[in-house]
Design a protein that fits this description.
Length: 847
């Protein structure tokens, strides 16, 4: 029973505890005391700092929201209300724009402004009372005879009176100045004041000058008396005493000069200026650079050249179009001009008049002279009639000579016929001068249409350059002279020149593919193609990794070397020339062209006795399949005394079956060109890591060629020199090389660093040692904070405007519903009255 009672009591206590759980929470909430706003301490800050928080400061959210709403009502709501209005009332009353002013302060400001306006209006028409002012001034200065006068000298009374007048005048002037400060002076008064001041300063300056002159005269007199005194002579040196006496007495200095002539000449020699002083004095008189001496722009230079050529052309046209009268045709002399005496006749007459003793002889001479003059005039008239034909012939010859001369102003030719007509029967210098004048008369920098003209002219000039090698005889000097203008024009129009070059390369490539199909036809390039390839290698940069012109041009040359069969020594010479062009290309970019090296190696093999075993053992066997001749082409079978340099132009002119190509001298000259080209490649590729593998077979071939019988001595020396150069380069490369080896050192593990702990760590603080980076982080953090604040403010502004719009919409809906209800009630009342019969006039009520 006891156990049952205990369990029941526990259950009751549990029920009580369950029931009292909610009550406990409510009791706790009731036990929390509410904050009394009168007991809380709230100190207002003197300065509001945005984003700064103080410890223990409580935020009054309700008050802040109320202030924000009031602020939006004053600003945002006003703007929203004014946005839908066409006109705005601006309150321009005094003090209404300042909210800090009270009504009393505003009234004071208005009264002050009103008084100022009244004063301005009254002063505008006030006349100055000058007579009254003068009377008042005179009354102030008037003498009062009733006052007692003290006895004294007249000077004292005069001084007192002048001082009184001065003081009175100053006081009056001060009063007048104080009165005139408020009024604006007229132009006449200002000018009078300026004139008075200038007169005053002039008088003051003259007075000071007179006083200075008096002082100087007095000092001179005192100094003269002092110099003549014995006291000064006893205190000064005798040499300096002479100088003092010379200052006082000028005659004394003349006597001293005569005595000191010899000493002065010696001193002048010592006091001669040195080289530095001379240079400084010369620099002082040198012309200085002026702004007009600036360097001219290319446009200005082109404009000046064009104007110069136009002036020369104009003067040449004047000379060519001279009239017949000027050239001597129908030339007549007036009698008046003959009777007139010149300055020579006047001098002769003066001499005759001076000789008084020989008057008769003078008269006879004059008569003889007059007779001679008459005879001369007759002869001249006869000669003038006879020489008209001669003058005409001279004029015709001069006009033909002018036609043959090159005109100064030349238009750019538009076709090959015009170009040939311009260059026909011209010397090389005239052709180059004509090209220069065409470029100067049509400069690209001055007019846009000149670009089209120069593009056409460039294409014609390039075509003219390509046709020159086909002429017989070949004008090689003109080819060299044409290179410079073509290079300059290609820089002016680079895009068009590159297009022209690429098109020519494509046409040459298509022709080569067609020619190589015919075994009876030689597929090696012609002289025109070789000269064009050399021209393009000079015009365009060869150092570019990939170029629009030089890349296809170099590929075309390599294709010639690999695909064209070498059937004669002439083909070998053409191939060596192509290898030299490739060498000039590789000097700038240092690209590896294996085709050129393989071709040169093949030419060296062609100079060795035919040995199938040696060829098979060589690595070059697979590259020598194109040599179809049964006999080595470049083998020298006879001894040669002199080796002439290879004349490439002569080779291209001769026919293919010429006996010159089978001569031993020609073979030797081809081998010399091969060796020199290989020397150039060795110097260019000397820095390659694969240099030994490339050039060791070449050195072995050179040794074999040098050991051949009937090999000339100079050629043997060149072969051995190039072989020794290759061996030295190979040794240097082997010294630099390092053999492959396993890794000796173990891989170094990553260095582990112990973490750094901050003892007094504060959350949110930046511990970056780089202060600039820390400041940047701080600024970015503040920027994000400000951005979030701006976004929240804009969001609150939108909520506020949305509430205003909703209230306005509710008001309009209520007004609309009210008006609708009124109208409906009115209509219902009207309908009720109509149905009840109350709207009829004089009718009885319906039943």
């Amino acid at each position: 029973m006891a156990k049952n009672n205990g369990s029941e009591t526990k259950k009751k206590n549990k029920k009580k505890s369950k029931q009292s759980g909610v009550n406990k929470v409510s009791m706790k909430l009731k036990s929390v005391p509410k904050d009394n706003p009168f007991e809380t301490i709230w100190s207002r800050r003197k300065f509001d700092v945005i984003g700064k928080k103080r410890k223990g400061e409580e935020r009054r959210i309700g008050q802040a929201r109320a202030r924000a709403i009031d602020k939006r009502k004053k600003t945002l709501l006003k703007e929203y209300e004014q946005s839908g209005k066409a006109s705005v009332f601006v309150d321009a009353r005094i003090g209404e724009q300042n909210d800090n002013l009270g009504e009393f302060d505003k009234a004071i400001l208005r009264s002050q402004r009103e008084r100022q306006m009244k004063i301005k209006k009254t002063n505008k028409f006030n006349l100055s009372d000058e007579e009254e002012d003068d009377l008042n001034i005179n009354d102030g200065l008037r003498d009062d005879f009733n006052d007692e006068v003290e006895y004294g000298s007249d000077e004292e009374t005069g001084q007192d009176r002048s001082s009184i007048l001065r003081l009175g005048r100053k006081s009056v002037d001060a009063d007048i100045a104080e009165g005139e400060e408020n009024r604006v002076k007229s132009k006449k008064e200002v000018m009078e004041e300026i004139i008075q001041k200038s007169k005053f300063f002039k008088e003051q300056k003259a007075r000071e000058k007179e006083e200075n002159e008096k002082l100087v005269d007095q000092l001179d007199k005192d100094f003269e008396s002092l110099v003549q005194s014995d006291a000064l002579s006893s205190l000064t040196q005798p040499s300096k005493m002479n100088a003092l006496k010379a200052l006082v007495n000028p005659n004394f200095s003349k006597d001293l000069k005569k005595k000191e002539v010899i000493s002065v000449s010696d001193v002048s020699k010592q006091d001669e200026p040195d080289i530095y002083d001379k240079l400084v004095s010369e620099m002082a008189f040198e012309m200085r650079a002026r702004p007009s001496d600036r360097t001219k722009t290319p446009e200005e230079i082109a404009e000046e050249e064009k104007e110069r050529l136009e002036r020369l052309e104009h003067s040449a046209n004047k000379q060519s179009h001279v009239s017949g009268d000027d050239l001597g045709d129908s030339f007549t002399v007036d009698d008046k001009s003959l009777n007139k005496k010149g300055w020579v006749d006047e001098i002769l007459e003066k001499n005759v008049s001076e000789d008084t003793g020989d008057e008769n002889s003078g008269c006879s001479d004059d008569s003889d002279e007059s007779e001679d003059d008459e005879e001369g005039t007759d002869n001249e008239e006869d000669d003038g009639k006879g020489e008209t034909l001669k003058d005409w012939e001279q004029s015709v010859a001069q006009s033909s000579r002018l036609k043959q001369e090159l005109p100064f102003k030349i238009d750019a030719p538009g076709s090959m016929e015009d170009l040939y007509a311009l260059f026909q029967d011209r010397s090389n210098e005239d052709i180059i001068e004509a090209i220069m004048r065409i470029r100067k008369c049509n400069p690209i920098l001055l007019a846009a249409e000149n670009r089209k003209k120069m593009q056409v002219f460039y294409g014609l000039l390039l075509q003219y350059f390509a046709t020159l090698p086909n002429q017989n005889p070949l004008n090689f000097q003109l080819l060299n002279l044409l290179v410079k203008p073509l290079m300059e024009m290609s820089t002016e129009i680079p895009y068009f020149s590159a297009i022209c070059a690429r098109e020519r390369i494509l046409r040459t490539r298509t022709k080569f593919t067609e020619d190589i199909k015919d075994p009876e036809k030689s597929s090696w390039p012609s002289l025109k193609t070789l000269l064009l390839l050399r021209l393009w290698s000079m015009i365009y940069p060869c150092s570019d990794f990939r170029h629009a012109v030089m890349t296809p041009a170099s590929l075309l040359m390599c294709e010639y070397l690999t695909r064209c069969p070498v059937l004669s020594v002439r083909d070998a010479a053409i191939g060596s020339f192509l290898c030299s062009i490739i060498f000039l290309v590789t000097k700038d970019n240092k690209k590896y062209f294996p085709e050129a090296l393989m071709f040169l190696k093949a030419l060296l093999v062609a100079a060795i006795d035919k040995d199938p075993k040696g060829i098979k053992d060589s690595q070059m066997y697979q590259h020598l399949l194109e040599f179809k001749a049964p006999v080595p082409l470049l083998r020298i079978e006879e001894s040669i005394k002199d080796i002439k340099p290879l004349d490439f132009l002569k080779i291209m002119k001769l026919p293919e079956d010429s006996s010159f190509f089978n001569s031993q001298g020609f073979r030797a000259s081809v081998l010399v060109s091969v060796v020199e080209t290989l020397r150039g490649f060795v110097n260019v590729y000397g820095e390659f890591k694969a240099f030994p593998e490339i050039f060791l077979p070449v050195s072995a071939l050179m040794v074999k060629v040098a050991d051949q019988q009937n090999m000339p001595g100079p050629l043997q020396e060149k072969l051995r020199d190039v072989g020794e150069l290759i061996t030295t380069k190979v040794k240097e490369c082997h010294k630099v090389r390092q053999p492959l080896q396993m890794r000796k050192q173990k891989p170094v593990p990553i260095k582990l660093l112990n973490p750094k702990f901050e003892e007094n760590f504060i959350k949110g603080r930046d511990y970056d040692p780089d202060r600039v980076r820390a400041e940047n982080k701080k600024m970015r953090r503040l920027l994000r904070k400000e951005r979030r604040g701006a976004v929240s403010e804009l969001r609150k502004d939108n909520y506020f405007l949305q509430e205003v719009k909703m209230k306005e919409k509710q008001r309009l809906d209520e007004e609309r519903a009210e008006n609708y209800g009124k109208a409906r009630a009115f209509l219902q009342e009207q309908e009720h009255n109509f149905k009840s019969g109350q709207l009829g006039k004089g009718r009885k009520r319906r039943r």
